[in-house]
Amino acid sequence: MKNTSSEIIGVVGHPVSHSLSPTIHTAAFQKLEVNAQYLPPIDVEPAYAPSLVRAMKTFRLRQLAVTIPHKKTALRFADTASDIAKRVGAANTLTRQQDGSVHADNTDWVGVRDSLLSRGSWEGKSALVVGAGGAARGVIHALQELGMEVRITNRTRERAEELMQVFDIQWGDVQDQCDLIVNVTPVGMQSLQDPENIHRTPVEQQHLRKGTTVFDTIPNPLRTRLLREAQENDCKIIDGMRMLVFQAIEQLRIWTNVVDPEVSQRVISAKEELAVIMRAAALQKLGVTDANP
Q1: Residue 71: active-site member
Q2: Hey, which of 11, 41, 67, 80 would disulfide with 21, CB 3.0 to 4.6 Å?
Q3: CB-based contacts of 196: which residues, under 8 Å, 6+ apart?
Q4: 3-class DSSP state for residue 36?
């Protein structure tokens, strides 16, 4: 890279110890032969989240991947933001520019889009988004960009009302017929704070119809209860590792474009190869075999 000093990247959230971002990004650094260091996950309590941008400038961090529950805060305190981040209302990526300012982006929607595009066209098809948290915004944007009719359901309808208005979508139900179900809740995720969560599902098995595509945005475990039961019901499945990897590649493209556009072009041209390498690194870290490459 033109910038010979080591670029420092990190991931912040609360909790965040489970993050696979250091693993997958480091694999990409090695493939691209870039001089960069990915810090161990940084747990930041919500009260300190407004200081993220200031910390980036103080410690000269090139980029922070931002996860739950700091995505709205990241957007609010960044110096500038992309139009998509503003539309989505959340930022999962903060990048320090050459002038020292910090720019907010949302790459979650790219992770969703690219995960689905590998399965063909979705134009005119129907989707049900399960969950109304911060991750739902990027997912809904991606589905609409793909030309899908989107509905949303949530444990409490009140929380979904804002998203229904912002994105002009309707309330849905898990009993409704649809082509795609996307889980954006943390239900089923591995959690040190709640060991039983991994045994839960956001959609009961009787509502998973044969032929429906079920997309769980949770990357760990690779096979959530939702996906296991979907397979048992002859549904098509997409695991959350795909979204994690593709959104991470977009993060790579963004920060390399700041320091060396030539490397950024390599990221674009090598996207599929990088996806395979990064996914393999994550699965090795988890100690699991890839049953759905």
Answers
A1: yes
A2: 11
A3: none
A4: strand
CA distances (Å), origin 246, targets 191, 201, 271: 23, 24, 8
Q: Are residues 263 and 277 in the same domain?
A: yes
> Looking at the 3D structure of the chain, how many domains does it have?
2
Q: Are residues 218 and 134 in the same domain?
A: yes
* CA–CA gap between residue 214 and residue 231 (Å, rounded): 9
Q: Which position among 2, 71, 210, 236 bears the catalytic label?
A: 71
The count of residues in the chain is 293
| Residue at a domain's end among 221, 240, 259 | 240
* Nearest one of 171, 242, 174, 241 to 212, comparing CA atoms: 174
Cα–Cα distance measured from residue 191 to residue 128, given in angstroms and rounded to the nearest whole number: 25
Domain that includes residue 163, residue range: 110-240
Average pLDDT, the chain: 94
Q: 230, 136, 129, 241: which is closest to 189 by C-alpha?
A: 241
Give the CATH number, domain containing residue 169: 3.40.50.720
Residue 164's pLDDT band, with cuts at 50, 70 and 90, is: very high
Q: What local confidence, expressed as pLDDT, does residue 191 receive?
A: 79
Return all residues near 214 (Cβ < 8 A) that are at least 6 apart.
180, 181, 183, 203, 208, 226, 227, 230, 235, 236, 237, 238
> What does the block give as tokens for 270?
């090598």
Does 217 lie in the same domain as 162?
Answer: yes
Q: pTM of the prediction?
A: 0.92
Query: 185 and 254 share a domain?
Result: no
